[in-house]
Automatic annotation (TrEMBL):
Gene3D superfamilies: 2.60.120.1440. Residues 115-211 form the FecR protein domain. This is DUF4880 domain-containing protein. Residues 2-36 form the FecR N-terminal domain. One of its GO terms (molecular function) is sigma factor antagonist activity. Keywords: Membrane, Transmembrane, Transmembrane helix. It comes from the Bacteria. Pfam families: DUF4880, FecR.
Length: 333
């Protein structure tokens, strides 16, 4: 049913309803992806192979209900072709032989695979063959796989900005820990870190367009979590287990200040703030556990950890103490 709707053209509401159905049971997504891949593969069969399949697949019988004289039922070409594809599903294993299986396997292999990574303190911008671009922040690793019918990126660690070239026939998916962000064409960022701002979790922030965010983690009662649809200047965060928080309004520029070498701290624990600076290089700052929970706000240069430390005694009850080549941040008294 969902494939029929998709082929005939569907609305945003249809896409959301389909995603909700896919999340109710992992078997739904596997079956949907399998049928979609087969239908798309059949559409790319060479002409001689199509002729062979047509000879071996008889048109399915159709029961026609009586209708008033002069009323003609309109059936789209794509909808008319789908029964052949469904029939071919059962036929693939017996009529194709080894050649068909090899050809089908080839069609479902990625046509582009690459890994991009940055070291601590580095950033990197890359353009993919489809025209989409990635901007990687410090200590970030991504694995890119482009297929004939979809585009996939695994964000293994760090954060990146994705500017996606629109292509409705090839959804762009970013997997980060327990979350998946799916788009057709948009601009958004994904953060998947174990320290620093946000702690150990995943954050998706949209700059332009619309992004669907889903989690592979179930709720406490074993049900699939609902998909979250994000618009521009909206964000959602999950913990390390994939439990999604509420959708929040967040100016995208604030979440992407790292591209300008800055960070905006908004009432965050001092321990998290220092961990964020540490992601970009050795700060030589040491934090006394007694002041780790103090909260700090402000905008700072990520490569100026020393200036950040010097500002702390003016806004927090702390003092700086030099010790063994490092600077300790300790209680003022």
């Amino acid at each position: 049913m969902w494939l029929l709707r998709q082929q005939d053209g569907w609305s945003t509401e249809d896409a959301a309803a389909c995603e909700a159905w896919l999340q109710t049971d992992p078997a739904h997504r596997r079956a949907f992806d399998r049928l979609r891949d087969v239908c798309q593969t059949l559409a790319q069969l060479p002409a001689d192979r199509v002729g062979q399949l047509r000879k071996q697949i008889a048109p399915p019988a159709v029961r026609v209900s009586p209708r008033p004289v002069g009323v003609r039922r309109q059936v789209s070409p794509k909808r008319r072709a789908l029964p052949y594809a469904l029939a071919a599903l059962g036929l693939v294993a017996i009529v194709g032989g080894g050649g068909w299986l090899r050809w089908s396997h080839l069609q479902n292999q990625p046509i582009f695979v690459e890994t991009y990574a940055t070291a601590r303190g580095q950033q990197l911008s890359v353009t993919l063959p489809d025209g989409s671009s990635l901007q990687l922040d410090t200590a970030t690793t991504t694995a890119v796989s482009l297929y004939r019918h979809r585009r996939e990126v695994r964000l293994l660690e760090g954060q990146a900005l994705f500017t996606v070239t629109p292509d409705a026939a090839k959804p762009f998916e970013v997997d980060a820990g327990p979350l998946r962000a799916t788009v057709v064409g948009t601009r958004f960022s994904v953060r998947h870190t174990h320290a620093g701002l946000g702690g150990d979790g995943v954050t998706v922030t949209v700059d332009e367009g619309r992004v669907h965010v889903s989690s592979r983690a179930d709720t406490a009662d074993g049900k699939a979590q609902p998909m979250v649809a994000l618009n521009a200047d909206e964000s959602v965060h999950s913990d390390a287990a994939g439990r999604l928080g509420p959708r929040q309004a967040l100016p995208a520029r604030t979440a992407m200040l790292w591209r300008e070498g800055r960070v905006n701290l908004n009432n965050v624990p001092l321990s998290q703030a220092l961990a964020e600076f540490e992601r970009y290089g050795d700060t030589r700052l040491r934090l006394d556990p007694a002041v780790a929970g103090l909260r700090i706000s402000g905008s700072f240069e990520l490569e100026q950890a020393g200036a950040f430390a010097k500002a702390l005694p003016r806004v927090l009850p702390v003092r700086l103490r030099a010790r063994e080549g490092a600077t300790e941040i300790v209680p003022a008294n």
